[in-house]
Design brief:
The chain is of the alpha+beta class. 54% of the residues lie in helices and 11% in strands. The chain has three domains: 1-39; 41-169 and 180-208, no CATH class; 241-347, no CATH class. It contains eleven helices and seven strands.
Length: 347
């Protein structure tokens, strides 16, 4: 083969390579354009499951519903187990074992798992707006309730440590503790959960979740409502029987702590932390024949002499004026341990 023939052959081969490369580029651009035109946002697990089911048997959209949704989605063994798990997770959250992102993801998972389970029970198609709203609303209700309980438990556990500092020679059931940090954390987490519920609702296309209406109509209020103060009252007014907040809507000063113990060497002790400064006094309980007057004190009356040492005197006085401490005898004789909600104790 001469030089001219070799040169022509190389030129033809080069042209073939160029044409093949150009063809590949054009195909690549066409693929990219097609992907862009057909791209859809990532769907949640339930939506993926639905697509897979339809692809396999083309029956999910016509899924046979043989029974109605239960009045409460937590009323069976599946819901019972989920509620207990939510309670455990909220305890972990207040113990610092769970982050905000992890809590939010867990909330989303509970919503998806409940929707899948109810569809598997032939109670919903999984696409009915009313059913999905019920699922998200009732899951929020349980999360918000367990949030308040977890905040109350965290406060109680911290108080138990304060009580233990007095030693093992004293009673373990005669003390009261209030840490304002848990009051504010409880409210902030409840708002966080409400936002998470509405994100799920928006994703499912079912409108907004009315968290206030859910809390207002909830039946889970025997141990307090969805706020810290009402749960605190249930513990220390209705169970311990040593203290009471008259107006459960009162806001405590930030960085505020309070501890009261009825029996310490035949005296009652009260301690208060204001901006990191600790104040301690003996509570002068006394006995009268014809009334319970000496068995009840307003906390503001006991601590007002200390307010002059802080520029937040009015703030502390406003909260302490709503707080009463009393003896166990007063609790039983007055019946305050059977009072719920806002209540002003009297001697």
């Amino acid at each position: 083969m001469d030089v001219t023939t070799n040169s022509n052959l190389c030129r033809f081969q080069t042209n073939d390579v160029r044409q093949a490369a150009r063809h590949n580029i054009e195909n690549h651009e066409e693929i990219v354009k097609r992907v862009r035109d057909t791209f859809k946002p990532t769907k949640d697990f339930f939506e993926k499951m639905t697509e897979q089911t339809v692809a396999v048997c083309d029956c999910y959209t016509n899924y046979q519903i043989t029974t109605n949704m239960p009045e409460n989605v937590f009323s069976d063994s599946f819901g019972y187990a989920m509620q207990h798990d939510i309670a455990d997770r909220m305890e972990d959250y207040y113990a610092g074992k769970m982050s905000d992102d992890e809590l939010k993801q867990y909330f989303n998972d509970c919503c998806s798992d409940m929707r899948i389970y109810r569809a598997q029970q032939h109670q919903t198609s999984g696409n009915a707006d009313d059913d999905n709203m019920q699922i998200v609303s009732q899951i929020y209700e349980i999360f918000a309730k367990e949030n308040a309980r977890a905040a109350g438990n965290a406060n109680y556990n911290e108080g138990a440590q304060a009580n233990a500092s007095y030693g093992s020679n004293y009673r373990n059931d005669d003390w009261v503790y209030y840490n304002a940090d848990y009051h504010y954390q409880c409210g902030e987490v409840k708002d966080f959960l409400g936002a998470a519920a509405n994100e799920v609702a928006k994703k499912w296309g079912i409108g907004a979740v009315d968290t206030q209406e859910i809390e207002k109509n909830s039946k889970f209020t025997i141990d307090g409502g969805f706020d810290f103060n009402s749960v605190w009252n249930f513990t220390y007014r209705n169970q311990v029987g040593r203290a009471s907040i008259a107006d459960e809507g009162v806001e405590p000063p930030r960085d505020f702590k309070f501890f009261y113990k009825e029996h310490v060497d035949n005296k009652a002790k009260m301690e208060m932390w204001m901006g990191g400064q600790k104040r301690s006094i003996d509570v002068p309980f006394y006995i009268t024949r014809d009334s319970l007057k000496g068995q009840l004190y307003n906390a503001d009356e006991l601590m007002k002499d200390f307010y002059g040492k802080t520029d937040r005197a009015r703030e502390y006085s406003g909260f302490m004026g709503q707080l009463s401490i009393f003896t166990r005898w007063y609790s039983w004789q007055s019946g305050i341990n059977n009072r719920f909600g806002n209540f002003i104790p009297e001697a």
